[in-house]
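Quick question, first post here. What does this chain look like in 3D?
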Amino acid sequence: MPQPPKRLTPSRGPLDLFGSEVRRYRQMTGLSLAQLADQIPFAASTIGDIERGESGCDRVFAEECDRVLDTRDALAHLHDGLFDGRSAAFPEFFAGWPDYETQAETLRAYQPLVVDGLLQTPGYAEVLLYGDEQAVQGRMDRQVVLTRNEPSPPRLIYLLPERVLRSRVGTAEVMYEQLHRLADAVSPRLSVQVIPDGAPHPGNSGAFVLATLPGDSRIAYTSSEPRGRILDGRSDLERLHERFADIATYALPAELSAVLIREIADELWKP
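> Answer (accepted):
Ran it through. Tokens below.
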């Protein structure tokens, strides 16, 4: 006996809302998942994941559904309003985080393996994202938050181990450009601080970012395998804030970090 479809809660977030509308229009036309899949270039399993809010989609999916389900462009319009193109650029588990970045007054980031996405060059991001143009563009679009005029950009405090500067991603040219991008980024509102090699510190449990939002509310994103998570539990946030403070005690000041970054760029990666 087939299982009943998952009950959706549109108020949970944009993926659930969009998925519930796809299901509603599909059911109004009397089509099954398989029947809809026969008429658009997406598998029934993919449509099901989208309807359940378990996967994002690009605008083409919305356009194809509008065509077959005769929605008068309702799904494409909803997609534009909810995602602004981001669902094609970000995995489902990360899709909600850029909204918090844009709201944040302060961001505290620790990345032990690679340069943080908000500070990556296109060339560096392209290597990490295996040449996925939409994903690279999505990452570059996120960086606008650091240079906007209104509202003021968030204060970013970024900690990274020195080994990130010495770990090759792509060509020497990519690394040279990336390291100078990091050093040049240091400003009164953007602090890049390097933890020197050999300094013992409690930052070996994975990457995380803490966002302080208006009203002093807080939220965090942690990277892990196979997917990251957005955390809002009080105990989780307090633990991560303590860890960040502990790691920061081992980091060089921003000005000395910028000097070290340029030295490593010229020593190891200058073409």
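Residues 97-269 form a domain with the Endonuclease; Chain A fold (CATH 3.30.870).
The mean pLDDT is 89.
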